[in-house]
Design brief:
- This protein is an alpha/beta fold and about 170 residues long.
- The chain has one domain: Rossmann fold, CATH 3.40.50.300.
- Helix content is about 50%, strand content about 15%.
- The strands form two sheets. A three-stranded parallel β-sheet has the order 1-4-5, covered by helices on one side. The chain has a two-stranded parallel ribbon with strand order 2-3.
- The radius of gyration is 15 Å and the shape is globular.
- The protein starts with a strand and ends with a helix.
- The mean pLDDT is about 95.
Length: about 170
């Protein structure tokens, strides 16, 4: 799941996981579980560390006798090429394909959503603007969806078709 903060990544990931026998591995929840509040720093190093933990969990799940059909990596914008490449390399080492869904919305929609409470306490409109200014072009094959209208049946159907390769 890629996209700026507030674009709906977590909402869509949860919905898709429920419909497709998948699991969501969330960087923000892992960070909150691993680090006490005094040690949460929202740095690139800590983000990368938490994503590495997610990738280890994904490997564990992928090696189960009956693995989940889909594993959704959530809680990261994937705004930098190296972030996508890291996940793609890990998936390739497991023989798993990578399907990237990039969510976008207007600044106004994001601002409204970011006013809501979230486990990541740095998640606000200033962060949105900072990440937006530095967001690198996604060169990996992906599905791009606009979530200004909220999560609806059309977006869910498009996502499912894309994930299933239809």
């Amino acid at each position: 799941m890629a996209g700026l903060p507030g674009t709906g990544k977590s909402t869509l990931a949860g919905t898709l996981a429920a419909k497709l026998n998948g699991v969501v591995l969330d960087k923000d929840l892992v960070r909150a579980a691993v680090f006490s509040e005094a040690w949460i720093e929202y740095s690139r190093e800590q983000d990368d560390f938490c994503v590495d933990l997610l990738l280890q969990a994904a490997q564990y799940l992928a090696n189960k006798t009956v693995p989940p059909r889909f594993i959704f990596i959530d809680g990261r914008t994937f705004s930098k090429r190296y972030q996508i490449e890291r996940v793609a390399e890990h998936a390739a080492s497991l023989g798993c394909p990578v399907k990237l869904i990039h969510l976008v919305c207007s600044d106004g929609t994001a601002r409204h959503r970011l006013a809501l409470d979230h486990v990541a306490k740095n998640r606000d409109f200033a962060l949105y603007l900072k990440v937006k200014a530095a967001f690198e072009l996604i060169e990996h094959e992906h599905l791009s969806l606009n979530t200004d209208g909220g999560l609806n049946d059309s977006l869910i159907r498009q996502s499912i078709r894309y994930l299933r390769g239809e």
